[in-house]
Structure formats: C-alpha cells, structure tokens
Description:
The complex is a heterotrimer. Chain B is mainly α. In chain B, about 75% of the residues lie in helices and about 0% in strands. Chain B is globular and about 85 Å long. Chain C is mostly helical.
Amino acid sequence: xxxxxxxxxxxxxxxxxxxxxxxxxxxxxxxxxxxxxxxxxxxxxxxxxxxxxxxxxxxxxxxxxxxxxxxxxxxxxxxxxxxxxxxxxxxxxxxxxxxxxxxxxxxxxxxxxxxxxxxxxxxxxxxxxxxxxxxxxxxxxxxxxxxxxxxxxxxxxxxxxxxxxxxxxxxxxxxxxxxxxxxxxxxxxxxxxxxxxxxxxxxxxxxxxxxxxxxxxxxxxxxxxxxxxxxxxxxxxxxxxxxxxxxxxxxxxxxxxxxxxxxxxxxxxxxxxxxxxxxxxxxxxxxxxxxxxxxxxxxxxxxxxxxxxxxxxxxxxxxxxxxxxx
Amino acid sequence: xxxxxxxxxxxxxxxxxxxxxxxxxxxxxxxxxxxxxxxxxxxxxxxxxxxxxxxxxxxxxxxxxxxxxxxxxxxxxxxxxxxxxxxxxxxxxxxxxxxxxxxxxxxxxxxxxxxxxxxxxxxxxxxxxxxxxxxxxxxxxxxxxxxxxxxxxxxxxxxxxxxxxxxxxxxxxxxxxxxxxxxxxxxxxxxxxxxxxxxxxxxxxxxxxxxxxxxxxxxxxxxxxxxxxxxxxxxxxxxxxxxxxxxxxxxxxxxxxxxxxxxxxxxxxxxxxxxxxxxxxxxxxxxxxxxxxxxxxxxxxxxxxxxxxxxxxxxxx
Amino acid sequence: xxxxxxxxxxxxxxxxxxxxxxxxxxxxxxxxxxxxxxxxxxxxxxxxxxxxxxxxxxxxxxxxxxxxxxxxxxxxxxxxxxxxxxxxxxxxxxxxxxxxxxxxxxxxxxxxxxxxxxxxxxxxxxxxxxxxxxxxxxxxxxxxxxxxxxxxxxxxxxxxxxxxxxxxxxxxxxxxxxxxxxxxxxxxxxxxxxxxxxxxxxxxxxxxxxxxxxxxxxxxxxxxxxxxxxxxxxxxxxxxxxxxxxxxxxxxxxxxxxxxxxxxxxxxxxxxxxxxxxxxxxxxx
Lengths: 326, 317, 285
C-alpha cells in the first residue's frame, strides 16, 4: 500500500483564552490518499476549520495558541519544516478555497493579479505569462469573457463568480491537495451546486486530493469518499460516506442525518433539530461532550470520555452506538 | 444627484460659511482700522473721513459681498499698511510653507509607515511597545517645545544645523534644505505619532481578513503579505489624517515658522495680527481655511482612486 | 524624572497596568495642583521680582530652579505658571463642554433637521485651523487670562459637541429611554435624568484629554506673545523667554518645557486610563 498523501496524527490546537485553555482541536488523526476526498463535517465551532488551517500553518503557535501532533505531507513533516520551505509547499502543492469570496479576495487588487501572484512566486512566471495563465484559468473555471474579468476588481463580480475566481487561485499552481473550507456556505442556493460540481470536476481532472469542510452532511454526501464527523474539537465518527448514510453509529451523526430533509419525506414533515446547543469548548467536563444532547446518554457518558475506536476503515467514539443490534 | 455634485455643493457651502465667519470675526471684534492706521492722535474728523474712504461706514454684509466678489476674481484687497496686494503677499510666502509642509509630511510618513509595519509584525512585541511608548511620549510634546529642544541640541550644543533663518532655493539647494531640516523635523516628529497609531490599528484589522490568509496560502513571505496585500487596504484612515495635516499646515504652521523665522504664510498671518492689518488677516485666514477645506475635499476624492469599491459606488451608480 | 520617562512602556504590557503607571501621573498632577493652589502660602519668592545682577543663574540652593533673563526666581514662576495653565485648562474645556455638550445632546436626541443643521455648523467650525482661530480671537479681544480662556473655550465647543452627540445617539435608543418616553416623561426630563448621567463618564475621559490640549494651546499662544500678557507667568511665555538665552542659560527654556511635558503626559495618561475604563472596546487600540 502506498504512503498516504497526507497523514495527520493526534493534531491538537489550544487557545489560551482568559477563561482558560480552549481545546479547539483535541487529538484528531486521519489519513488522506492521492485523489481521494475527505469530508470533514461538524457544526460551526466544532474545530473543523481550525484543524485544517493548523495543518498547513495558517494557524500557527504563538503566545496565544498552542499546537501539537504531527502532520506528514508526502512523507515530509510539515510541523518541523522551516518557514521558507513551508511557504513553498503551501504555495505550490496545497490550494485552499475559503468560505466567503467577499472577504477572501483582496478588494483592492485586480483579479488577474491575484491569480497570477502565486504563479509568479511559486512557478517563476513573469508578469505577462502569469496574466496569460490567469486568463486561461478563469476560462477553465467557467468565467465568461476572461480577458475582461482579469482586469476587474472582486466587487464587480457576483458571489458565485468570485468563488470561481477563488477556485482558480487555489488550483493555479497545480496543487496535490485542495482544501475547500465551507466553499458554498456564503453563496446563493442556486449556485452552490455549480461550485461543488466545479470543485469535483477540477479534482478529477487534476487528480488532486481534497478536504471538503462543511456543516452540511448533504454537501458531503455525493462528493466525499470518506467522512469524518467532528464534535467539540474531536473526531467522533469516521467512515466511508456510504456507510455513514447507511448506518451511522455515533448518535450525533444520526442526529445530523435526521436534520437533513429527504425527498421521500411527506410534505410538512418536521425536520428534527438537535436539542440543546454545542458545548462551550473551554468548559468541557470529563465525559462525552455530546452527552447533554444525546438521547442514549447514561451515567457512564458523563463520567468518562469514549475514545475513537477503529474497526477497519470505520470508527466511532461512543459507548452506546446506534444500530448495535443490527 | 450624483455623489460628486453633492460633494461639490457641500464644498461651496462650507467655503461660503468659512469666509463669512472669518469676515465677521475679523470685522466685528474691537480694534478700529482707521484708528490703527492713523494712530491714537487722529482727530475724529480724520477718522470718519478715512472710514468713508475705506468704505467702512457701510453695512458689514454689503462689504462682505463686495469683498467676496473681488476675492472670487483673485483680488483679496490691499494691505492697509504696506499697500501690497494681499493675494501677492500670500503667493510670495506660499513656496516656503509648501516646502515645509512637504518635508514635514515626508518625515512623518517616513517614520510612521515603517514603525507601524514593524509593530504589527509582532503585536505586543518589543518593537511594538517601544514605538507605542515613544508615540505616546511625542504626543505630549507641543511643537514650540520640540522646536526649542531641537535647536538646543542640533544648533547650540553640536552646531550642526542653523538655528533660524531661511535660505531660498535659488541660493543653493543644500543651504536651503539645511535651513528646513529642523523645522520639518519638528513637525514630522510630532505628526508621525497619530499616523502610526491609525495605520497600526487599521493594519491589525486588515490582517484578520481572509484575503490575508489566502495571500499566505499562496506561499507569499510575510513582508510581501504586509506590503502587497495589507498596506493599501489599511491606508484609508492614514490618508484622511494626512489630508487633515496637509490642509492644516498650509499656513497653519504658525508656531514653527515663527520659531525658525521662516517667511511662510503662517508668519505672514502672525505679522498681520500684530500689526492689526485687518484686510491682510482676513485674506490669509480665508486662504488658510479654504486650502484646508479644499484639500480635505481632494483627499475624499483620492479614496476613490485607492479603493475601487468606493469608485464603483460613487461614479458608476 | 528618569522613572517618568519610562512610564509609557507600562500599558503595552499585556493590557494589564502596573499600579505605578497610574500612581506616577496621578502623583505629578497632584503636586502641580497642590503647588498651584497653595502658591501664596508656601513661602515662594515674588514671581515678578527682578534682580538683574542675579539673572540667568543655574539651579542652586538659593534658587532651586535658577533664575531667568530678568533674574526672577524660576521655581516661583513655574508654580505661578502652573496656576495659569490650570485655570485655563480647567475653565476653557468646562465652558466648551457646557455649550458643546448641550448642542451635541440636542443634535443626538432630536435628530432629523436639528441634527443636520448643528452638524453642519460644527463641520464649518472644524474647517478652521484651530490655532489660527485662537490667534485671531485673542488678537482682537485683547490679551488677558479671561480672553484666552474664552477663546480656547469656544474652540473646544465643536469637539465636545461631537463627543456628546455620538454618545447621546448611542444611549438615546436604549430601552430605558424608550421606557421613560412611554410613561410620558418630558424631553427635558429624559435628557437630564436618563441620558446625561450616562454621558458624564465618557465626557470626563475626554475632558482630561481636552485639558492637556488646552494647556498646550495656551502655551502656544503665550509662546507667540498672544496669550497671557507679559509679567504674569505662563509656561509658554517662559519657554519663549528662555529661547533668547538658549546658549548661555538653557535651563531657562528647558525647565519649563520639561514641567509642561510631564504635566501634559500625565494628563494624557490619566485620560487614556479613564477612557479604557469607560469604554473597554477602545482599550485595544
């Protein structure tokens, strides 16, 4: 078996807040192979964005932040890489698309320049070549009149167009890993699907691996090979996408699934909301973080935290997994 | 109505109010021009005669509109004392004030931008703290105090630069610059503090933006991220304050021009005040206030050049 | 004095202030105020008594801070000068705040056309370079302590109006104001009983800063010879006098400059601290 493209072991991120240490990411491990897609699913505040940003050094250790665990990308230990080499890896081998293209594009820089910037830096292209390539990329991500658009500023484009530009920036240097951090959350429903299709198409054509971060299991459904569900900074269930949908084991995953609308439901069927609120990550007790909201909770759940136990490619962190009898 | 025409209308209204107010302040306050000109020994008849000659016996509002009419055609009247045309007097002094202003702003910006950039590299770090502390200290130093201290250090103790006096550029560029260094340094050392503070605070806000993360994700080194991505979107408040300073310094550098004996517009005003040369005071104050207002208007326009979003809102829709 | 120079380092230290960063400025301001108030009774030399033989003497046991160009006791002049600075520094902003505060409250409370008009007037006033306006005022009103205070007071109206308008706008929408209105309280009552008490803390913070600005402005006017008239001591005037003898007797200019610097610095410090207490959001800056 070949070595995975990305292998993360026991990743931890803590913030020293005035209220105490906030464990935003608490011991998460996963592997991602070439060309595969991992969906990272969780509510906002579950630590999914912080996890991914910390992997590639966009969240870095300082007086306020502590970081632990190991991250291997193509066998290189990203955590111990010198700054300059880390930047080279980041610029040319990893691409990232953020949630809101309103804020992730520089408002005072022309689109063509923003796409070409990475090419000039990491591929050594001159200004003219970078602009030419930017225009090709714009055409590739489905932007009409790419020559004209390259000379415009972000505010002159619609939200969907802007997100296409952001994707063009991410894939400009032919990365091996594409990180999409809630790429459709800020967009109109009508363009969400187009953007997801575009991401998937680019991924297939280029053979990139992708981490798709989303709060919406439905988004991950048809597009991720594997899904990792996160809750309060921990991975609570990992499985192939098909298995998750067929039989969730962790009650939280089950609850997430129940909150999705289904076409087979009768009209006016009420979606099931998850009762309660996500826990305060700075005030976690010794037990399972989901216990207060969990229908299957027992005293044991409050006393001790279940670890993520793996069974082949499948794993969950629960004492009372769903569908145990089945 | 477009944004531009609304702004122009506002500019005209403010200018009108400014000149009217100046005219009233200068003319309503005690100190009869005729007495000033003729001296205390003049007979009442002489004074009445001169007042009539000068047109001072007519209502103030009438005189204001007459003055405004000729001011619009560039005629600010003649000095009661020297009969020199006021407009000409201002134009003669203007280059000195402008040079001082430009050199002072270059000094201020030259200190403020690097200090702010170095500060935000590590907020709360040693450089940030030193620069914040010195900014706070300089904020408590009035220009007349700093001017004296600089003269004491550079001229009296070490004899490096001339203490006062002005050498025109025609008599040698170096001599000219030498006579302007201390005055420009005085103003620059005081003004960088505010510039640094606003730029630092805006930079810190900008650095939290997603597009900064994206720039870092492109593999750009930190200084490229700072200069290429963060500086420009963070410079709007800086430009505003700079505009206020520039506007204020055209003729507003009264104290520094006085300390260093520079023949600029500020010193012209001071002389006019001491001599009770009303028409000259009126002209210079109007000029100073007008340039202040106009420059702030221009700075507002400059936003549009710097920020394409503003350009979009203002000129296309 | 060397300890005071290091003061500004303190607030940067993780946002937590070391007590002496408050204590030192407070102590300095207290000393200045105490001396200015008790100047007549603490056995000072006559600040106007000239002794030409003893002119420009450096600090000694007899004259703790030396003598000036006309042989007058510097210590005495500094302390009487503090009295001048404090009178102007206290009264001018008080005047400006009374009028400007009322204007700002009206603009912020009634909004609409009243607001538009008052803001327009304030904008015009702010369009004047303040120092030029102050010069023009004192030049024509005539130089006296009262006129200088009046001129600087008028100049602080626009700034005070802005602060009070912004805060009135912020408070005017709160539930307790709406509640007072629904039970039929008069506008006057709402303004004075509900809004004014909330306005006072931010105004006080601003007042400390305004005080240091006004002290500097008075110094500038006196330095130019258009402020406090001659024999009466004023720090700005003393610096201007000392300038003549910068080579022979630098202490005549540098001592009043240093005293003024410390006073303004201390006031800025205290203003900063109060402002942070009043509005924690701004403390980050």
